[in-house]
Amino acid sequence: MFILLIINCHLHSTGDKRRALLRGLTEALPQILPLLYSLVEKHFVAALSEHTRQQMELAKHHVGTVTAVLNAINAYAEWAPVTDLAKYGLIHGCGSLLSYSDFRLLACEFFKIVCHRKRPADVAVCEYDAAMSNIFQVLMNISQEFLTKSRMQPMAIDESEYEFGVCICETVVALGSSNMQCILVDGARTSHFLQQMLEYYQHYRIALHFQSLLFWLVALREPSKAKSVARVSGDTSPAGNFGSVGVSSTEKEKKGVSLFITDEIYSTLLDVSFKRMLKKSANSSSSLLELWNEELEGKSDFSNYRTKLSSSCE
């Protein structure tokens, strides 16, 4: 409760008071972050134990405590150094909670907040990229679980799990939009990431499709300079170019994601875009494919949506 009070004061302070409070909080991170981790671990284990013993009221109490601490962690995730979040176990801790329905949305929110942050100029690049690589692995694993289930057992996914899937997709898009340089250093990692983004684009639920559309619009606007470099070098293999001996991480980042977008990916993007150009009507097919309709929130109007689709085809 004391930690939450401090955060609340921080959010409502201004000027010199806010700067002084921020300095104090920053200096206290080596004490606060391990405390948050230990609280999550302690009460999570206690919740599982009480649930096993069928002590539901006690379990509910511990679940509430974990939820409150996760809210505090998410407040710190907005500004605490990513390297500190990794150092004191919060990335690992929140990653472990993604498999539990009571905590997965808040845990996913933690990753979404962190993934939206760009690499600061004054940070140790290796440490930051290592932390983001850990986040990448966590997100790819949980994302693949959702995609596999939705592909193999679409009718088994309820609305709460679908809501979680949307949150995961938004988080993965944020990772690719703000920290793609941490993915591009490895060819296999980049290909894996793009394959998942393509699966989201192909997804029958439009909210997942739409979130991935936002990523592809950015990725496809990248200059084609990278492909020219590949042709000049005589190696048109994305993995081959990025895996070449003597190619620095900086050069890999400069080449960009466009080097990995193959003809097959372009073909799939076009195919999906053409299918989704239609607007849902009373005579629409009852297939799983969910088309745009007026009831969707946060998707602007249909003409704007079609404009985005058209842009992905250019």
TrEMBL record:
<dbReference type="GO" id="GO:0003723">
    <property type="term" value="F:RNA binding"/>
</dbReference>
<dbReference type="InterPro" id="IPR045478">
    <property type="entry name" value="Exportin-5_C"/>
</dbReference>
<dbReference type="InterPro" id="IPR045065">
    <property type="entry name" value="XPO1/5"/>
</dbReference>
<dbReference type="GO" id="GO:0042565">
    <property type="term" value="C:RNA nuclear export complex"/>
</dbReference>
<dbReference type="InterPro" id="IPR011989">
    <property type="entry name" value="ARM-like"/>
</dbReference>
<dbReference type="InterPro" id="IPR013598">
    <property type="entry name" value="Exportin-1/Importin-b-like"/>
</dbReference>
<protein>
    <submittedName>
        <fullName>Uncharacterized protein</fullName>
    </submittedName>
</protein>
<feature type="domain" description="Exportin-5 C-terminal">
    <location>
        <begin position="159"/>
        <end position="309"/>
    </location>
</feature>
<dbReference type="GO" id="GO:0005049">
    <property type="term" value="F:nuclear export signal receptor activity"/>
</dbReference>
<dbReference type="InterPro" id="IPR016024">
    <property type="entry name" value="ARM-type_fold"/>
</dbReference>
<dbReference type="GO" id="GO:0005737">
    <property type="term" value="C:cytoplasm"/>
</dbReference>
<dbReference type="Pfam" id="PF08389">
    <property type="entry name" value="Xpo1"/>
</dbReference>
<dbReference type="GO" id="GO:0006611">
    <property type="term" value="P:protein export from nucleus"/>
</dbReference>
<dbReference type="GO" id="GO:0006405">
    <property type="term" value="P:RNA export from nucleus"/>
</dbReference>
<dbReference type="Pfam" id="PF19273">
    <property type="entry name" value="Exportin-5"/>
</dbReference>
<dbReference type="GO" id="GO:0005634">
    <property type="term" value="C:nucleus"/>
</dbReference>
<feature type="domain" description="Exportin-1/Importin-beta-like">
    <location>
        <begin position="14"/>
        <end position="110"/>
    </location>
</feature>
